Amino acid sequence: MTDEIENLVETLALEPLAADRFRGHGSPFGGARIFGGHLVAQALLAAYETVVGKACHSLSCAFIRAGDRETPVHFAVERVSDGSAFATRRVTATQGERQILNVALSFQAPEAGFEHQDAAPDTPAPEAFLDEAEHIASLGEAMVADLRARLMRPRPIEVRLGDPLQFGETAPPRARQWIRSRNRLGPDQRLHQAVLAYASDMGLIEIGMRPHGVDWRMPDVQSASLTHAIWFHRPVDFNDWHLCSQHSPVAAGGRALNRCQIFDPRGQLVASVTQESLMRRRGQ
User: What local confidence, expressed as pLDDT, does residue 3 receive?
Assistant: First the structure.
């Protein structure tokens, strides 16, 4: 299994249980906790099963508890509203009697309108950036062994890092990375959005830590995603490289606010992400 690349189309798949009720599973390639982006992607796919003729344009979620990889996750979709242009859904993810994730989602029918956007930053091509696995290897034995082994194996999202740091180094709270799906995705826009949602939780938590010389992979650092929001501005083709321009404007109270703009290869801003994360030394 070490060299096998996870197929997200398979591991994110949901099993229908009843009307607006679905069951999903964590990845067999992950650690003891379910990756937050995995749950967000599954919640999006669950909501999509109740919507016709509209695409998700925003979602906002709260991570309530860590998910156990060995326990199935049940997704309940509430049909909050259905209009001619917009639809609203709420998804609750539970394991047993415990809620682990709540997500509010909004969908919109196709519509033309005014357009403007921030310009994509002038950034070297993906080939000029460092492959994520090479960076993990350069960190040596500073990480817990099982985490290092998991991060060294090929992940379903290919990542090229523009501003990597070694443990203990400091830098302004900004970074760039190129990302894309390793497995070819078909034409279904729902899957492209779901895989982008999965990837949007990768690396963002690190940005607010950069000025402080800490990293979520350090054994003495405690971190977790608390809230996560995504706005989809345009259709996504996640078979192509996408540039993530990341920034953390503030850290306070043991939390950091992290933001990301995601641009396609033509420089179009296709999605924006905001995340608040827990950030503290263990024992504090």
Answer: 64
Mean pLDDT of the residues in the chain: 93
231 phi, psi to nearest 5 deg: -120, 120
Q: Is residue 2 part of a domain?
A: no
Statement: residue 12 has pLDDT above 70 = yes
- What are the structure tokens assigned to 44, written together? 């999006």
Give pLDDT, residue 1: 40
* Residue 146 belongs to some domain of the structure: yes
CA distances 199 to 4, 150, 262, Å, are 18, 16, 11
Region 32-38: mean pLDDT is 92
What CATH number did the domain enclosing 193 receive?
2.40.160.210
Examine residue 119 and state whether it is found in any structural domain, yes or no. Answer: no
Q: Tell me whether residue 3 is in a domain.
A: no
Q: Which domain holds residue 159?
A: 8-110+124-281
Alpha-carbon distance of 240 to 76, in angstroms, equals 32
pTM above 0.90, yes or no: yes
Token duo for residue 131: 């492959």
First-to-final CA distance of the chain: 37
Residues tagged active-site: 201, 225, 275
pLDDT of residue 217: 82
The structural domain count of the chain equals: 1
